[in-house]
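Lab channel / #folding
Pinned by the channel admin:
"Please post every new chain as: sequence first, then the structure tokens as a reply. Keep commentary short and put observations after the output so the thread stays searchable."

First post following the new format, from NK:
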Amino acid sequence: MLSSLLFSCSEQVYEYEEMVRQELKATNQTMTEVEIKKWAIYLSKWSEPDFYQKSIEDMTQDDLLTFTKNTVESSEDILYNLLVADSLPLSTKIQALINDKLYLALNVAFVLGDIAIDDLLEKLKSCKELEYITIYSPNISDDKFTLELESAVSSIGIKTDKIKFRG
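Reply from TO:
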């Protein structure tokens, strides 16, 4: 990670690095090169639409909604993180049961988005090796889903202690 931090930066980041160095020199302060790089990356992010610049105390509900809309991860990124969280090899074959919503990796079903309980059960009934269900909670907007899920999955032989919520 450190090597990617040091070597994969845009021209804008290099410009910010130079500004940080000049400011440090002018104020007679010092920083390591890594600290300078971190500050430069931080400063470069300020111009991006998903960078929240206000004080956290001033954050409104509208700010939160805008911020979360701009930070949605791709299904690929979410699946990668879930594989790591569930201690599965990154080389694990992932089968899409319902694109962007339901995936199967070995013995784990990943629920990434809103899905009707009936559709979920229909797809999971055919998964003979299924042991766990991992739910990526940030993408689930239906409050009833969690309540219905626990009773519904027992009908296909999955106990409630085999349901994991991540995110």
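NK: Residues 1-8 have pLDDT under 50 and may be disordered.
TO: also worth noting, Residues 75-166 form one domain.
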